[in-house]
Amino acid sequence: MTEKNEEIVEDKDISEEVDEKLTEEIESEADNLQADSDLEQEKNNALVEQVNNLEEKLLRSQAEIQNIQQRNAREMQNIRKYDGQKLASAVLPAVDNLERALQVEANDEVAKQIKTGVEMTLKTLTQALIDNGITSTGEVGEAFDPTKHQAIQSVDSTDVDSDQIAQVLQKGYVLQDRVIRPAMVAVAK
Questions:
Q1: Where is this region: Disordered (predicted)?
Q2: 82: closest CA among 183, 149, 180, 171?
């Protein structure tokens, strides 16, 4: 072979080697890019999952805050609704004593004046209770209700029907829909 042919063959061999090396480098670079791409995809997936978890925590926190606000509103409503219960419980024995005092006969002028004063005091206290949503329960002839009345005894009565209140031993009181004190009653048989 001539020198020129040998050079051409050598250049061809070198060219093939360079092509092979370039192909190997390109394939290696492509593998590296694919690995980098897979790594980036994994990072993206991890970040998306983290964002989803944080969004879920945020939604739970918002729901919990809303539940706390609703519970607080209900508690405040109950506090306002039943605000006078403690005071009413403290005042009720005084009302009972004034009612008992009015049952005593007043024979002389001084006793009648005292009785009038007691009546006015009782009327004022009763009106204050009514103004604050406190009503009495347990009237003769009223149907017996175990949620509002406490039966002390059962009696024979011709004045009222069976299972009705025949006698009130102590009035009961109700604040809104809550019984402060049940009425102590005698129920007709």
A1: 1-43
A2: 180
Q: Is the pLDDT of residue 75 over 80?
A: yes
Q: Are residues 111 and 182 in the same domain?
A: yes
pLDDT at 103 over 90: no
Amino acid at the residue 64: E
The residue segments making up the domain with residue 14 are 1-81
Residues 99 and 72 in one domain: no
Q: What is the pLDDT of residues 115-159, one digit of tens each?
A: 999 999 999 999 988 888 888 998 888 899 999 999 999 898 888
**pLDDT of 7:** 60
92 and 71 share one domain: no
Q: Is 49 left (phi over 0), alpha (psi -120 to 50) or beta?
A: alpha
d(CA 184, CA 178): 16
Q: Phi/psi at 173 (nearest 5 deg)? A: -135, 145
Tokens of 143: 């149907």
Contacts of 45 (CB under 8 A, 6+ apart): none
Report strand pairing: 183-188 vs 149-155: parallel
Residue 183 burial class via C-beta count within 10 angstroms: exposed 0-12, middle 13-18, buried 19 and up: buried
The partner residues of 174 in beta bridges, in order of sequence, read 135, 179
> What is the Rg, in whole angstroms, of the alpha carbon atoms belonging to the chain?
47
